[in-house]
Amino acid sequence: MKKRVTKINSIFLSIIMALTCATLPITAMAESTPIKNSSTSVKLAFAAWGDPQTSSSTITSALAARAKNTEASAKDLGNAKSTLDALLIAGDITENHTADEYAMMHGFLADKGVKNIIAAEGNHDIRSSDYSEAKSGFVNFTNGINAAVGSSLKISKMYYSYTVNGYKFIVLGSEKSMPEESYISQTQLNWLDSQLKASTKYGKPVFVTMHQPLKDTHGLPDTWNNNITKKAGSVGEQSDKIKAILNKYKNVILITGHLHTGFGKYSYQKIGNFHSVNLPSIGITNRDGYEAPGLGYVVEVFDNKVVFRARDFINGEYLSQYNIKIYPDRVKSASLSTTSYVYNGKIRKPTVTLYNYSSQKISSDNYTVTYPSGCKYVGTYKVKIAFKNKYAGNPSKYLTFTIKPKATSISSLTSGKRKFTVKWYKRSTQTTGYQVQYSTSSKFTNPKTYTISGTSTISKTVSNLTSGKRYYVRVRTYKTVSAKKYYSSWSGYKSIVTK
């Protein structure tokens, strides 16, 4: 009887466990996390989407899914617990830039509480019709949706700029209909340069957006499915020019789309002075990384950093493992008390001075200075400045100074027939050799120079000169370090007339 009861209890327990396990996925399923600022210190918050490619076509399930994915992502914006200052869309708003596709996007976004819609055109928005017609459709959509959400943003062409909460957004756009790439005119490039020059002088991050990324970035051309040319998948012919302009300025963040790559190794890249973020598609299932549709970022801007918070907008979930943190350079200028010393056998450590964009001197409490070892010999030395406290996260800075060999001077200068002989004082410490230079001008225009290797030779006779001509002569030392010559200052000159 006891064994029978035990068996019944065991069966009953198994049934209970089975039922419990069956319900666990439902009861333990993570609930969506509404969009909400992570801190009260957020100065600007905006969502960043790429490639909705909203389609009104239902010919294939893939085309029909794009509108559903975008609509679900838009609902996530509407459920936000903190106000979004903007939604940035990095192109390919529609599949075929038809009026009904733009109308669908307008309907998805108009009542979601987003204050501004900052949109760039993509190749799908312009590629299959007359450019003026495509431009008109894009401009009308951008102006219409911004009027609907209460924004003052109004555009008349494909490229424009707009300021939100004191932060500048610069939008680039093609000026021709092209199948995959963009055409950026020299006029637009000049405009970009002037916009960046004006807006970066305050030290705040500046957001530049265009549809296609620069060539050789974010895994291109391999991340493009038709990588037959080096520039495949990129903005095109003007890529290098755009890159050069962006590189001139600090704290520029380029935001692009087009590639449909998910969160992962191709999402972020530091390119010279500027940062580049490539957005996944919001409407299409992504590849080469975290593969799902509805992916994008909620971007939070602080005084000292910009955080791209990776989000699945369809399921309302943050994917923090794919977050991107960018620390703007808040140091306007950095200098050393001197950048050049003369060797004297002592360790040299020039002092550091830093200023922020408010022209205030940065306290040394906010950084540490590291000098290289042995900085007393002839050579070049790199000083590292690492930041902490109020400037924690600011990119480290590197400044250099040199130590030059000690100079020498002329001990005698004697004249001979169509020649002269110069002698100088010996320098044997931290010296490899000497140089003798002469000219018929005291300003040493068109001089002739002789290099003397070794420190033992301390005289030089120069022959085959013009008789009765005045010559000006000077000398200096040099030291070779790692195949580089470091020169002392020139001695004072002496002059003599040949016999």
Helices and strands in order, then pairings?
Blueprint: H1 2-27, E1 44-49, H2 61-78, E2 86-90, H3 99-109, E3 117-120, H4 131-149, E4 160-164, E5 167-171, H5 186-199, E6 206-209, H6 239-246, E7 252-256, E8 268-271, E9 274-278, E10 295-301, E11 306-312, E12 317-318, E13 324-326, E14 331-336, E15 340-342, E16 352-356, E17 367-370, E18 379-387, E19 397-404, E20 410-416, E21 419-424, E22 433-439, E23 448-453, E24 459-462, E25 470-481, E26 484-487, E27 494-497
Parallel strand pairs: 1-2, 2-3, 5-6, 6-7, 7-9, 15-19
Antiparallel strand pairs: 1-10, 4-5, 8-9, 10-11, 11-12, 11-13, 14-16, 17-18, 18-19, 20-21, 21-24, 22-23, 22-25, 25-26, 25-27
Helix pairs in contact: 2-3, 3-4, 5-6
Report what the structure shows.
The chain has 499 residues and is α+β, with helices and mostly antiparallel strands. 19% of the residues lie in helices and 29% in strands. The protein is built from six helices and 27 strands. A hairpin with a 2-residue loop joins β25 and β26. α3 packs parallel to α4. The longest helix is centred in the N-terminal third of the chain and has 26 residues. The radius of gyration is 34 Å and the shape is elongated. It starts with a helix and ends with a strand. The N terminus is likely disordered.
